[in-house]
Amino acid sequence: MRREGPGVPGGAVAGAETPSASGGARETLRTEFEFELPRGYVDESGTVHRRGAMRLATARDELLPLRDVRVRENPAYLSVVLLGRVITRLGTLGDVHDGTVENMFASDLAFLQDFYRQINAEGHTRAAVACPHCEQSFEVELAGSRLGES
């Protein structure tokens, strides 16, 4: 199910309907979140892909990579395999997989790792930050924004 609406970064969001606690109207659980990479993935033809979407991870997504030989040999590879499973689209690429993630710039990989943590562990895409100059605290929306923008 895809829907568009205000407050939804980039417009489109996938979701699943769940009964509300009161038993009345159904509420929608967001299962897919849009993002924009700070630099962008450059494919074989030189096209830069920045906008994409990531879905919520399942237990299976987190367990299956642990069987991967590459992860057993190098535990740092876990995030590459995991991100390859949960990124649902990136620009106009037909398929996103761990090989795609392997060839991303380090800043984009770091962005995606943080984005994954935000939507899966914390349940939202906002982060609390403080201005380095005035030390004022505020929140920034990570979904659909580029690094350095608020």
From TrEMBL:
Name listed for the protein in its UniProt record: Secreted protein
Region (Disordered): 1-26
